[in-house]
């Protein structure tokens, strides 16, 4: 069944929850990721607790996925491609995390979204994401834009299937999260204006990959 991520309003910027915006929680000593093209710090987009996927051990035995993309000069660095160096998906163990230190001399609005959004998880509405989103909106009376994406399941590709393979074991990676841009301009992520983003992981190898389409 589809697990929809519903906009649940503001969240603390450093909460250990699945959310968009705020500050990423990372192990001590982690440096803020930089774009391979422009060499500037990337923007932090979202944090996902793999325990929220509802499969296997609870969140204490799984990881946290942090997603970044370059927004220093939108459109100039290929942040939509999984291996371009314009985005980053980092997978960490849950234990011992703290807020990532901001790099000095960089404008805050470039590094983080303008607002932090928590999510409520709604399971059901079938196995396909787009019909599930439509059914939730019809039942709840809220707009489809309140759906921030889905956890796990099958990606609803806008273009061709770009499911990546793990660089370590060469197995097909599993979808962790599909993200929408969001319902308001303060917290919106930039996926080309009407796109979706897709993050995948190979948990045994600790590898993750991120891309978007529009």
Structural commentary:
The protein is mainly beta and 214 residues long. The protein has 2 helices and 12 strands; from the N terminus they run βββββββαβαββββ. The chain has helices spanning 108-111, 129-140; strands at 2-10, 19-20, 25-27, 43-49, 63-69, 87-93, 97-99, 117-124, 147-151, 174-180, 196-202, 207-213. The strands form 2 sheets. Strands 6-5-4-2-8-1-9-10-11-12 form a 10-stranded antiparallel beta sheet. It is globular and about 45 Å long. Mean pLDDT is 92; it is low at 56-60.
What are the main properties of this structure?
214 residues, mainly beta, two-stranded antiparallel ribbon, 2 helices, 12 strands
Class per helix and strand makeup: mainly beta
Q: What's the alpha carbon Rg, rounded to whole Å?
A: 16 Å
Largest sheet, in brief, is: 10 strands, antiparallel
Instruction: Indicate the mean pLDDT.
Output: 92
Helix content: under 10%
How far do the termini sit from each other? 25 Å
* Contiguous runs where pLDDT drops below 50 for at least 5 residues: 56-60
Percent of residues in beta strands?
25-35%
Q: Largest sheet, order of strands side by side?
A: 6-5-4-2-8-1-9-10-11-12
What best-fitting shape do the alpha-carbon axes yield? Answer: globular
Helical element count?
A: 2
- Total beta strands: 12
What is the string of SSEs from the N terminus onward? Answer: EEEEEEEHEHEEEE
Summarize this, please?
This protein is mostly beta strands.
